[in-house]
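sry for the spam today, last one i promise. struct tokens for design, 364 residues
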């Protein structure tokens, strides 16, 4: 069956925007000491709401790759490669700039992070999409997940003689200690390190496969049903794989890829049904606005945080003042912290809304 003409999915724009809003909310609680457990990353094995955000965004990157390049599969490749490389370098450079904030301490600089991973994964997956069919992409994803599982569960960590998956003692941590430059997020290991980048590529491959499905000439209801069914099956497979290879965002384990990609596929299927099929568009307007300049909104949040979280006012920062004031009313400090985080999301919505009103879409 031939591909249908490429059309813009409001559901995908909204999903991207709400994902960025959620990312800002969990990255900037009102007070680091007062956070609901599900709004924190798991310390090691397990899954929280926060753990779902980054893989959902990478899944969206994959869907977007399919929509962006589906009509260019037969076009000359080198001009496309140049654009892909330039865009990846720009995203990586912005990630490095954010890592230098607020004091530009170069000796203590971290070379990894959310934008760095997005840049690398986009580069690899965009080139992969332009040169392979869906079966080859699926095979590549399966091979990476299986090899990663075997590597972490059968190869002893050098220097210990043991196969371990504990923080800072596993094979991925050892590779980072040997080859990752700069500061690591957790001292002797990094959740966005070298080995864990490989399964994160598979997260985006699953998005590419979902994008290919959305581009097929199928009835809309069938697309929604396929996304939801495939997502449920993928998440279930990830759950059972997790019984022997735990669901773990820090290692980005193979089971984590399947569980989170399954969730993202079901979410996209549900939004596609509600928004693009049923036409329920008013409720998703904030997501569309955030999604139109998603990475810009993410970058602005880090910059605006210098005012709302870093700059001292009256002996303390604005966020601590606000949480303390709300707590004094008898409110749970964790709720106060979450409300301030939501307030900060709203602050970031203002420039996103202004850009959207002026039809300015900043593409890195």
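last one done:
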């Amino acid at each position: 069956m031939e591909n249908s003409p490429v059309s813009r999915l409001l559901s995908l724009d909204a999903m991207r925007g709400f994902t960025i809003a959620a990312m800002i909310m969990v990255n900037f609680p009102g007070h680091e000491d007062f956070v609901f457990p599900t709004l924190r990353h798991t310390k090691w094995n397990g899954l929280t709401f926060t753990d779902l955000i980054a893989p959902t965004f990478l899944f969206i990157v994959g869907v977007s790759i399919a929509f962006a390049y589906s009509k260019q599969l037969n076009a000359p490749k080198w001009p496309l490669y140049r654009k892909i490389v330039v865009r990846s370098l720009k995203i990586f450079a912005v990630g490095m700039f954010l890592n230098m904030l607020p004091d530009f301490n170069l000796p203590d600089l971290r070379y990894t992070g959310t934008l760095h991973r997005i840049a690398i994964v986009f580069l690899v997956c965009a080139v992969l999409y332009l040169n392979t069919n869906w079966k080859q992409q699926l095979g590549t994803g399966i091979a990476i997940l299986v090899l990663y599982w075997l590597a972490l569960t059968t190869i002893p960590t050098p220097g210990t003689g043991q196969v371990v998956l504990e923080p800072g003692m596993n094979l991925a941590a050892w590779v980072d200690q040997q080859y990752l430059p700069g500061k690591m997020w957790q001292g002797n290991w990094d959740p966005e390190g070298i080995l864990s980048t490989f399964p994160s590529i598979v997260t985006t491959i699953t998005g590419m496969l979902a994008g290919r499905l959305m581009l097929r000439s199928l009835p809309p209801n069938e697309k929604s049903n396929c996304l939801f069914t495939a997502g449920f099956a993928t998440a279930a497979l990830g759950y059972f794989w997790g019984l022997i290879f735990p669901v773990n965002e820090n290692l980005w384990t193979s089971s984590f890829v399947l569980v989170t990609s399954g969730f993202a596929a079901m979410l996209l299927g549900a939004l596609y049904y509600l928004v693009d099929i049923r036409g329920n568009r008013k409720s998703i307007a904030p997501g569309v606005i955030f999604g139109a300049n998603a990475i810009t909104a993410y970058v602005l949040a880090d910059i605006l945080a210098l005012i709302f979280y870093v700059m001292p006012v009256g002996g303390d920062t604005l966020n601590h003042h606000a949480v303390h004031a709300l707590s004094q009313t008898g409110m749970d400090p964790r709720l106060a912290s979450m409300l301030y985080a939501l307030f900060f999301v709203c602050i970031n919505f203002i420039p996103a809304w202004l850009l959207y009103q002026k039809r300015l879409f900043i593409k890195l």
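Confidence is low (pLDDT under 50) at residues 1-6. ok im logging off now
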